[in-house]
Amino acid sequence: MKTIHKHRLDVSNEIQEVKIPEDGKCLRVDYILQDRCIYIWVEVEADTLIETPKETRQFKVFNTGDGIPKNALYVGSTVNHLKPEAYHVYELLD
User: Fold this and answer.
1) Residue 18 pLDDT exceeds 70
2) Residue 46 backbone phi and psi in degrees, to 5
3) Where in the chain are the domains?
4) Beta bridge partners of 21
5) What's the average model confidence in pLDDT over 16-24?
6) pTM, 2 dp
């Protein structure tokens, strides 16, 4: 059985660390106006959540037009509907 958990990312150009199981799969990215932040929804195995060691995975939010490093894996994009801004979330790989 699987489940989905959400994790918060700040709208920032800093690298952000999130503890997610190694096999966690990022499914969706959304900017939430009320919280002024970005959430990512990650699918994980439900029966191993408590005992599964979580690794620290690194994510970075890029603005449109920013340079994106080669070690970045695209996760998703989202839009702030009150401003003309889009955010693109990438996971940074080693």
Assistant:
1) yes
2) -75, -35
3) 2-92
4) 54
5) 90
6) 0.89
